[in-house]
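Thread: quick sanity check before group meeting

JM: Hey all, I'm pulling together slides for Thursday and realized we never actually wrote out the predicted structure for the chain we discussed last week. Dropping the sequence here so it's in one place. If anyone has concerns about the input, flag it before I start.
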Amino acid sequence: MRRFRAWTSKQQLLAAAVLLLAAGGVSTWLLWPTPKTAAPRERQYRSTTACLLTDDKGISSDPANAAWAGMQDASTATLIKVQYLSIAGPQTAANGLSFFNSLGVQKCTVIVAAGPTPVAAMVEGYTQFPGIRLVAVAGDTKGTPITAIDGSPAAIKSGVRTVVAAAA
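JM (edit): ok, ran it. Output follows.
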């Protein structure tokens, strides 16, 4: 029978140090804080889009500027996507109708027409898109069932914000 010899004090000290280091490593690994999930850098939008139809000046002048500001406020509050399209070429209802139709085909949840020409184009083609909420800003709706918003830029901004936010 073989006899095992006892560990020397150096060996015992070395074994204790190795066990202590291993325990410290496992403890550190278990107690290490989990990284926080980074906030997304882009907005996570809903599957709802509000579209603005403007004349050839785009969103640089009222009433389109006020309507766009209201749409952006609603987008920030409700995460609805917003976009705008300017009527290029002759500023007539007939020419604007093709631009209005493009927004309708894109399945915009709400279409806001700002100004006389865009509103005239909307009035001409509104029956083609019965499931879309239509809003006319500063134009003649000629008695159609299109929601009309008029007044000061502040009133337009507030009215458009309310209508677009309700679509969320």
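AS: nice. Residues 9-31 form the longest helix (23 residues). The chain has five helices and five strands.
JM: adding both to the slides.
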